[in-house]
Write a structure and sequence with these properties.
The chain has about 425 residues and is mainly α. The longest helix has about 40 residues.
Amino acid sequence: MEDDQMTVGRSLRSISVMRAKGFMPLWTAGAVSTSMMWLEMLAAALFTFKATNSAVDVAVVSACRSLPLLLSGAIMGVVAEAVDRKKIVLFGLLLASASSTTVAVLSFLGALSTWQLCAAAFVSGVVYATEMPARRRMIAETAGTAKASRAVAIDSMTNYATRCIGPLLGGWIYGALGVATSYFLSAAASLCAAALIYRLDTVQVSTGRLSLSRICGDLIEAGRYARDSRTIMALLTVTVITNLCGYSYNVLLTPLGRETFNLSALMIGVLSSAEPAGSFVAGAVIGSARMRRHSLRWLLSGSILLFLAIAVAGFASSYQCPVALLLLVLFIGGLGSAAYNIHQTTIVIESVPGAMRSRVFGLVTVGIGCWPIGTLLAGALAAAIGPTGALMLLGLTGIAGNGLLALRAAQAGWLR
């Protein structure tokens, strides 16, 4: 009976968060834009691999999408403190819609090439680089301090769902209707999300005019804060390792599916959705349980589980395992991915003062921005030793890196 009452209470709290003024438009816009980003990523990868038959070229296109995270992530954290966050998100969605429309028209005219996909991917990456310091900050603010963690957990769960839906849609639409339709759908969806944000009524307290000297000063201050915080330094280290060697595995799924398993575009979409599906399930559990203690421990454990799944997936694929087994392994990896992602945000919200959060989120975004370097590394490894060997090597490297960090943290007592 008590368990039932606790479950009902958690459900009511989640409902109350979603009823907060402004939450639903922000949540919906984020869900739509992120779904379309993953749809475009798979469609671009399939088009590029068909045109070039090169895992390196697929990696380059994917790297262009994540490069802005590395180049502008920290700056966007500072900008989000001073500039109206609603305008940042709105302009980004309109820019994404225009970029996707351009790709769709070029494809329809038969003039699309991989360099144009690289340019469009870079624009999409610029838009995505604003998501954490701007829209997610707004998500937490609409819910209020007491419910901020739950609001972020709901938003994180939604991101996992979009990572399932986007590749599935991308594989299905690309296989049935081609790349032009994929990008036309993305453009229309981004435009609808922009309309939701445009109608949003928000009030942001001004923190002064934005200037180059202020950007430099705020970044230096954020760097000093991170340097003096063992928890934040550990968070940034895990983030760098996980994005260098972990999430870059995704770029290997297209050549793996085509060369090793001879899969259709739709089945490659299913393969790309396995890990985020596991994340969605685990995110629901973590969000309802409200795990407030040992966030760093959960972060490290989740990342190591993800790397273990990647290594096992590479080993199993080298022996031509059934696709169902590969899906199961990646699904289990998604359980660890959820623990890593949710506690990555939770650590910042719970341990960083409000005035510093956007800037620290910006530093985290820079860590996430190591993804393009990891993507290029994964592509080069696939060209040298094949996608299965690349998966094994990336997984084992991540286990070693984060395992050593976890051992040091345990010895120093950081995980208590």
